[in-house]
Amino acid sequence: MKLIFFILGQLLMHRTVYSWKIPSHAVCEHSHLTISCPENYKIKITYANYGRLIPSSVFCPYSSSHDDRRDCISSNSKSIVQGQCDGRGTCTVAASNSVFGDPCVNTYKYLEIEYDCIGNPVDGSWSVWNSWTGCSKSCGTGHKSRTRSCDSPAPANGGSGCSGNGTHIVSCLQQDCPINGGWSGWNSWSGCSKSCGIGHRSRTRSCDSPAPASGGAECDGLRNQTETCSPLSCPTQLPPIRQLRMIQQEMMTIP
């Protein structure tokens, strides 16, 4: 009948970064020892001995025909068990002289094994992108973003993380912001409307610095400006010759 015993006061199973430490397992000679790891974990042998140690926490039955008080160790125990179990999810090893040889004749032996469960490396993979955030501005150019997580699956057991960025930012434009109009500088004055005497001249400016856009207000004030001008005084106009002669004749007839 198969017998399986653990070391007295065995520690509770505990997890490291990517492995499980398994308490030692043992079976008596002529039995089979089966060890295993959880899914996605593989066996890594840390200790094995086929023989007998005095004192021992493995209580295999004594035999009157055997010398059970001797210490004996099979030096190749660990390498043999590693060859049969390392890298597997489960394995069974026979506690037998046919497997390990006989390290101490006429001694009732046992097989004791300690091992870790090493997780298979799992590389991380990105989730799908979340929805975009709203634009950071209600008008004009702002930005919006979306995120994703490295959890499909998350990296585990020494696997590599996700490559790339978890945040994606782009520019966004809800609508153009209103732009109020602004006047340009005044253009040069026009020439005077008269070459002599009093005339007028004008100048203009444009509402294009900037031009109103997207519902912005027009420029406040006058687009055109006019003022009087007087480049030269006009000369006094002399009467025509015929009219002058008539005046002279009238003066001669006066008594």
Describe the structure.
The protein is 10% helix and 29% strand. It folds into three domains: 115 residues, Jelly Rolls (Sandwich); 57 residues, TSP-1 type 1 repeat; 56 residues, TSP-1 type 1 repeat, CATH 2.20.100. The protein has 255 residues and is mainly beta. It contains three helices and twelve strands; from the N terminus they run E-E-E-E-E-E-H-E-H-E-E-E-E-E-H. A hairpin with a 3-residue loop joins strand 2 and strand 3.
Q: What's the SSE blueprint?
A:
Layout: E1 5-6, E2 14-15, E3 19-28, E4 32-36, E5 41-52, E6 72-73, H1 77-85, E7 90-94, H2 97-100, E8 110-119, E9 141-147, E10 167-173, E11 199-204, E12 224-229, H3 241-252
Antiparallel strand pairs: 1-3, 2-3, 3-8, 4-7, 5-6, 5-8, 9-10, 11-12
Count of runs of 4 or more consecutive helical residues: 3
Distance N to C terminus: 179 Å
Which fold does the CATH topology of the largest domain refer to? Jelly Rolls
Class inferred from helices and paired strands? mainly beta
CATH superfamily of the largest domain: Rhamnose-binding lectin domain (RBL)
The radius of gyration over CA amounts to 54 Å
Name the CATH architecture of the largest domain: Sandwich
Tell the overall outline. Answer: rod-shaped
Mean pLDDT: 81
What is the CATH class name of the largest domain?
Mainly Beta
